[in-house]
């Protein structure tokens, strides 16, 4: 049975990806900070005959990330999905807002890829980084979020070059907004219901997860 580890697996796209991969005979490692949400996803998967394990992990903390990946014996796919978005005019951002965004989206991406790499390399596997179209172009009231996603784009493209002779693949996933709880605390998107749902996005990601350099989600 193939295996996949997904950060931010308790809700939104992470949950949808977990359900999709589990439906297709992957054992899923559910990584995140919210034990309750993760166990609800695990229960959904198990009720449908799938296999899932919950692993608590704060991607901002090196020790937490290291301990989490030590619990994974075999890994074929790692999906670097955990992320936060705080939106508004630049002058309204606090130092805490900036730290939370960069530590989760950038530092978290680096730490988790570092820890996943030995497992992925062992199985000639794949890494997918969820970047967002905010990593392709700046957007109003998304200055810090966009900066973090440009950084993850740079990380991903650099590793594609660094690992060009390695038997592993790293894929950049570019997507716009989705109808998920990501927007619950923001007035930036007036009507999230018009956005594509996480199930449709997860479907496209799974179908195109073949080691290509990038996946662009159609809107």
From TrEMBL:
PROSITE patterns from the UniProt entry: ADH_SHORT (PS00061)
UniProt GO cellular component terms: membrane
Keyword GTP-binding among UniProt keywords: no
Domain of life, source organism: Bacteria
Keywords: Oxidoreductase
Keyword presence, Oxidoreductase: yes
Molecular function per GO: oxidoreductase activity
PANTHER family: DEHYDROGENASE/REDUCTASE SDR FAMILY MEMBER 7B, DEHYDROGENASE_REDUCTASE SDR FAMILY MEMBER 7B
Protein family membership: Belongs to the short-chain dehydrogenases/reductases (SDR) family.
The protein's name: Short-chain dehydrogenase
Organism (species): Lentibacillus amyloliquefaciens
Upper lineage: Bacteria, Bacillati, Bacillota, Bacilli, Bacillales
């Amino acid at each position: 049975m193939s295996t996949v580890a997904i950060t931010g697996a308790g809700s939104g796209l992470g949950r949808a990806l977990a359900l999709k991969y589990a439906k297709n005979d992957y054992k899923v490692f559910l990584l995140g900070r919210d034990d309750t949400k993760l166990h609800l996803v695990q229960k959904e998967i198990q009720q449908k005959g799938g296999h899932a394990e919950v692993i608590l992990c704060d991607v901002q903390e090196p020790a937490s990330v290291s301990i989490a990946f030590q619990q994974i014996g075999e890994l074929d796919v790692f999906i670097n999905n955990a992320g936060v978005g705080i939106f508004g005019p630049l002058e309204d951002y606090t130092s805490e807002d900036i730290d939370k965004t960069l530590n989760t989206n950038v530092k978290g991406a680096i730490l988790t890829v570092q820890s996943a790499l030995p497992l992925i390399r062992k199985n000639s596997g794949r890494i997918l980084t969820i970047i967002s179209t905010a990593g392709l172009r700046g957007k109003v009231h998304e200055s810090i979020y966009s900066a973090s996603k440009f950084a993850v784009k740079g990380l991903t493209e650099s590793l594609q070059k660094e690992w060009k002779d390695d038997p592993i693949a790293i894929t950049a996933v570019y997507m716009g907004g989705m109808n998920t709880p990501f927007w619950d605390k923001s007035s930036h998107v007036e009507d999230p219901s018009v956005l594509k749902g996480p199930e449709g996005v997860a479907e496209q990601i799974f179908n195109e997860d073949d080691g290509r350099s990038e996946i662009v989600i159609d809107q």
